[in-house]
Amino acid sequence: MTTREINGYQLQRVREHVWEIRQEGEMRVPARLLASESLLDQIGDDNTLDQITNATQLPGITTHALCMPDGHQGYGFPVGGVGAIDAENGCISPGAVGFDINCGVRLIRTTLTYDDLRGREEELVNALFANIPTGIGHGGVVETDVETVTEVLDRGLDWAVDEGYATRDDMLHCEDEGRRPDADSAFVSEDAKNRGKNQIGSLGSGNHFLEVQRVSEIFEDDVADAYGLQSDQIVVMIHCGSRGLGHQVCKDYVNRISEEHAEFNADLPDDNLAAAPAGSQVAEAYYGAMGAAINFAWVNRQLLTYQTRQVFDRVFGRSWEDMGMELLYDVAHNIAKKEIHAVDGEDRELYVHRKGATRAFPAGREEVPRAYREVGQPVLLPGSMGTGSYVLRGGDGSLSESFGSTAHGAGRIMSRTQAKREYGASDVQNDLRDHQQIYIKAEDGETIAEEAPGVYKDIDDVVAVSKDLDLADPVARTVPVCNIKG
């Protein structure tokens, strides 16, 4: 089929898995959706098409606004959205980054196998749940003061190394080595800092999790070797972000930008897209504040890594170093970065907004950590707590197709309200334990219902689109063993 009509939009099939809403009216560029036909039907079930079309009206946006195959409705800008905007004559939009700045995923390797863990799943999930802070507004691994938060905002993982929560090797295997050079805590409000001081090292709630996984399949042996992965290996995936601090930063700047640049934003179709003109004082302030919140999120995930290592020490009676609990990679979602990309044959500096999207740079790109530069950046795609997740590597087609981006997970197909109507927490928990030997523990039973496997798209379909378009290539698949949530 070469044309689809969904919710009043005409989508033209450009080629396999690439659909375009042509530029018309106030649109500055076309909108593109990267999806199979079945995923396209799911994307069309909410307001995602409205939002990606609205995003094409952001000043300075280049080429096309993009929706990844896991896309779904967000606030203003869709989750799974990518917008590359001229960094000199365009704008930067907090809403196109998202409220949970640097919500991201990291994967920790171990030398343990599934046989080492089998029969101890319940002991491990209970120990993790007892030692990993979860839930809304609860404390973190460390509870500190505004002065320390300020240092975290400016220094990122450098602070964690100095305080004994991270190693230099952890830094070398983190996006940007765990520190944004342009972060500036001076642009973060006291309200935001106060929200962060008791949340450093905490999962939060919603779709955030810490999951112990087993590597079930290897697809590319040489890349898996470079990543330190092998079949039946136990790994740990952590998914969370900048907590209340990041939310406050976004809120502060959406409000400030709306007030200071009302005329600039007057023609945008959604207040949540509020954008600051590139080069303006508030644009520079937001970029510094966002970088600081990014640092906070990296430290947040690092402290959860530290705590996880201590739990494994106690449960297995061996040091975490002896169990090879090293960071494979940490990748950010919900971020805007100045990057150089080719547009119409010329290299240009762009604010690449990725909201619920993952950077997926191929081999050779200098931003890829040296350990992986010859094979490509690791890409971590969590599925659901009942299906599985993927490790991929950045594909050669990502730069030309999606500004070096791909999906960030499975993507929701059901609202949280609907999920609670359709699923019972104990039913989900018992079914996963009894039929799949997956052990789940959560702060609130409603979270289990909201995050039931059936509320998500098929992760295999999402990965297939990414592979077919050469955005990212599957390296390994993992399946859950135990999972804790807020």
UniProtKB/TrEMBL annotation:
Record note on cofactor: Binds 2 manganese ions per subunit.
> Subunit comment for this entry?
Monomer.
**Name of the top EC class for this enzyme:** ligase
Annotated PANTHER family: RNA-SPLICING LIGASE RTCB HOMOLOG (PTHR11118)
What family does the Swiss-Prot or TrEMBL record give for this protein? Answer: Belongs to the RtcB family.
In terms of InterPro entries, this protein maps to:
RtcB (IPR001233), RtcB-like_sf (IPR036025)
Keywords of the record, alphabetical order, are: GTP-binding, Ligase, Manganese, Metal-binding, Nucleotide-binding
GO-annotated molecular function: GTP binding; metal ion binding; RNA ligase (ATP) activity; RNA ligase (GTP) activity
Function summary: Essential for tRNA splicing and maturation. Acts by directly joining spliced tRNA halves to mature-sized tRNAs. Joins RNA with 2',3'-cyclic-phosphate or 3'-phosphate ends to RNA with 5'-hydroxy ends.
Residues that coordinate or bind Mn(2+) 2:
239, 333
Q: Where is the active site?
A: 408
- Indicate which residues the UniProt annotation says bind GMP: 207-211, 333-334, 382-385, 389, 408-411, 485
Swiss-Prot/TrEMBL catalytic activity = a 3'-end 2',3'-cyclophospho-ribonucleotide-RNA + a 5'-end dephospho-ribonucleoside-RNA + GTP + H2O = a ribonucleotidyl-ribonucleotide-RNA + GMP + diphosphate + H(+); a 3'-end 3'-phospho-ribonucleotide-RNA + a 5'-end dephospho-ribonucleoside-RNA + GTP = a ribonucleotidyl-ribonucleotide-RNA + GMP + diphosphate
Q: What cofactor does this one take?
A: Mn(2+)
Q: Which GO BP terms, alphabetically?
A: tRNA splicing, via endonucleolytic cleavage and ligation
Superkingdom: Archaea
User: Does the keyword Metal-binding belong to this entry?
Assistant: yes
Q: What is this protein called?
A: tRNA-splicing ligase RtcB
Q: Which residues bind Mn(2+) 1?
A: 100, 208
Which stretch is the leader sequence? none
Q: What EC number(s) are associated with this protein in UniProt?
A: 6.5.1.-
- A Pfam family hit: RtcB
